[in-house]
């Protein structure tokens, strides 16, 4: 981000990781920033997320074959899709666009766009992490995906191929199956996506240790939070 010759007063709404990162970079560009949030920095959505910096998250939500999974999702009380049937007439146009977005050529284009957007995630966060004194919380551990069956392993092949095609290094950690004694001898297969980072987990809720550092991102540079 380039420095502005004429500083401006800018308000950022939301003191989660996105809002605080935006505020910090805006401040670095020479502007004055006020961050507005009903709670303390890092206490909203950012308080309970997984804490991952995933430059490998290039797979769109809508993928080929998503429509065939809808009936099973609707019947599963813990599934990813819940639908209020009275709202269906309003929602139908969006659902149609969502399904069409899963066409192979559109998925490939979306993945390229996501990689361009997310590819520098770790490098972009580096100065913010350093300024917040949080380097001890970030580790380059990669990203593990565990499969409970051969069917689920094979089903994810399209997504893994999409990641590989966009420069994400993917390893099959075991040629066969791994038996997990903690799951009654269940057999699991594991893939690793290299390069991603995540914040170290602690016994206490993780963002409690990150919250003061999150606030430090802006207040240490002259911004205010409200």
Describe this structure in words.
The chain has 226 residues and is α+β, with helices and mostly antiparallel strands. The chain has a domain at 1-48 and 205-226: FAD/NAD(P)-binding domain, CATH 3.50.50.60. Helices cover 40% and strands 17% of the residues. It has eight helices and ten strands. Strands 5, 6, 7 and 8 form a four-stranded antiparallel beta sheet that branches. α1 (17-28) runs parallel beside α8. The two termini are 25 Å apart.
SSE blueprint:
Elements: E1 9-13, H1 17-28, E2 32-36, E3 52-53, H2 66-75, H3 88-100, H4 104-118, H5 121-131, E4 138-140, E5 143-147, H6 150-155, H7 157-165, E6 170-172, E7 178-180, E8 186-193, E9 197-199, H8 206-219, E10 224-225
Parallel strand pairs: 1-2, 2-10
Antiparallel strand pairs: 3-9, 4-9, 5-8, 6-8, 7-8
Helix pairs in contact: 1-8
Brief overview:
By secondary structure, the chain is an alpha+beta fold.
Instruction: Classify the fold: give the CATH topology of the domain at 1-48 and 205-226.
Output: FAD/NAD(P)-binding domain
Query: What spatial form do the alpha-carbon principal axes imply?
Result: globular
For the record, give the distance between the C-alpha atoms at the N and C termini, rounded to a whole number.
Answer: 25 Å
Content-based structural category? alpha+beta
Q: Any guess at the CATH architecture of the domain at 1-48 and 205-226?
A: 3-Layer(bba) Sandwich
Oligomer: single chain
- The share of residues in helices is 25-40%
Share in β-strands? 15-25%
Number of helices: 8
